Amino acid sequence: MALSNSNTSETLTEEQIIAMVGAASAKQAPGLSMGIGDDAAVLEPGLGKACVTTDLLVEKVHFDLAYITPHDLGLRAMAANLSDLGAMGAKPAFAFLSLGLPKSPARKFVQELLQGLNRLGQDHGLILAGGDTVRSPMVTLNICLIGYCKGYEPILRATAQKGDAICVSGNLGASRAGLFWLQNGGSPHDSTAQKAIAAHLRPLPRVNLGLTLAQNGLVNSMMDISDGLATDLARLCRASGVGASVWSDHIPMAQITRGLAAQAAQDPLDWALTGGEDFELLFTCPPGNLVEIKEKAQKAEPGLAITQVGEITQENGVFLELPQGETREISLTGFDHFKQEPA
Amino acid sequence: MALSNSNTSETLTEEQIIAMVGAASAKQAPGLSMGIGDDAAVLEPGLGKACVTTDLLVEKVHFDLAYITPHDLGLRAMAANLSDLGAMGAKPAFAFLSLGLPKSPARKFVQELLQGLNRLGQDHGLILAGGDTVRSPMVTLNICLIGYCKGYEPILRATAQKGDAICVSGNLGASRAGLFWLQNGGSPHDSTAQKAIAAHLRPLPRVNLGLTLAQNGLVNSMMDISDGLATDLARLCRASGVGASVWSDHIPMAQITRGLAAQAAQDPLDWALTGGEDFELLFTCPPGNLVEIKEKAQKAEPGLAITQVGEITQENGVFLELPQGETREISLTGFDHFKQEPA
Predict the structure, then answer these.
(1) Neighbouring C-beta atoms of residue A258, cutoff 10 Å
(2) ipTM for this prediction
(3) Minimal Cα distance from A99: which residue of B?
(4) Is A93 a member of any domain?
(5) A22 part of a folded domain
(6) Structural domains of chain B, count
(7) Which of A18, A181, B5, B286 is the most buried (most CB within 10 A)?
(8) Cβ-contact B137, A138 below 8 angstroms
(9) Do B119 and B185 sit in the same domain of this protein?
(10) Phi and psi at residue A54, in whole multiples of 5°?
């Protein structure tokens, strides 16, 4: 869809965009005494410990309007943020949207973007409570979310214990496979690659899983996988002052990920370890909790697999154990957003 | 200062930027049980009603690195947000920074930006509690602030009453005068234009004034002036279901604003009404409160003028009363960030 539109009746002024964001937002709701429309939103006290997360998405860096629809862009931006709340075990409550749009944006673009944002938000009880709209040469979205842990503690990444089982939800690398497909000219509508495309464009944040794990006190540490298992597990280990041993042949990968990697002569394990943006949960737990965790996970998110992929060790560093008995250090091999391209 | 630097020893990786933002942030503080370094920050409950505001700033739209230093950029971004908390009468508490930077940003740029952000933040008791760093072709900053009103109500813009005095703090149009100077090739270091330049590059948010007005229950409605008195007063009136009469010869303007306008053959009144980004407070109050307000304001922000510029009326619309007895409607004549340039 064209972002700008030369038919001026279809393009929007600032006041119109503010009005549309206002219509997609709440003025009042439980816990929210003043929503959108003032200098700041006003939240009632007493909802428990608040978890706050913020994420910035920039066109051409995090998404390409050539292959993502405005609806999916809204949905994906919300998914990335909800994933962070899920990783704390917090119940989503309020969203604050900063939206940068080029001059004279098309009404349809803004409408569908807000629909995508709100669709996933509403699935998780989230209310759009405030924001800012500005002009920007690139479409830019910042979402700040507030969620609450009422009567239980949020799960940090700094509390992994030696001997913990390291687990992931779902499968890894599919988002990277979908991105590879799209960046290499594959159609966003291709039916064979659909699962990988959907994993990239419409990821599902594991909010319900995170909530159930935290509320039941079943895990010692948790985070979401946004920059790849290798980098994110290294961050968790560094924060906890521990190390990790990862079993390469246990890392869950979807059939489509292996298939697209074979087609592209890429290593699917590489996609699973460093691909990023899977938005699955990575957590560590006493091995004795695994059975109960899998049962609870089935109730929270039916059909979602939980897989142990290794264990927490005492020595620093994240080591990948390969089937041949080899060991490779994989700490910090993931995506660096600021790495210079080779000249 | 060069944003990128071909000397690679001076440019930063993502982990280095995260570490720098981490060093500028709090891990733990009163009310903050987990600061930067996890999927989300964790705030303790029980601090009162929370006011949340978010603002997005994009290079070339909101600032030009040709004439703003990284330090002043950080300070200005924080000022714009603090101004919103001031306009609610909330006490600043926590900041969440999303930072978009081009590839291989220079260490000095990031360092000075964070210093500018934190300098103004610390003046107001604000703690950097979380954030996100990403790559972006344009320098992009989103700041989300949380402040609290403990034991008193935040002041909304929707509660102006017929007969209220309309007041502004400080003087209007100086930021626009400074921007005009800079955009037309004036030196950022010129001593004669310094007050206007400072008003644009280093505005002072009226947090202490807003706090004292709210805590003492002296005003009926309040907001900050970010898009110009004409547009912002029209918003306040629309939200309150009232109108306004503005006395043109009472609008406070600095000598430098009049001087630069005369030099540029511009109307200083136009700058004061539609210039925007003054970050002064606009509030309405029972006329009988004016004396106490001025006394309290002197204690909160010594030397800051409070000026009545008109009164709230019953009929819709904002009308400017000119000295010749003429009246002009000025609702919504301010800056539209999305207005199309003439073809």
Answers:
(1) 16
(2) 0.86
(3) B56
(4) yes
(5) yes
(6) 2
(7) A181
(8) yes
(9) no
(10) -140, 145
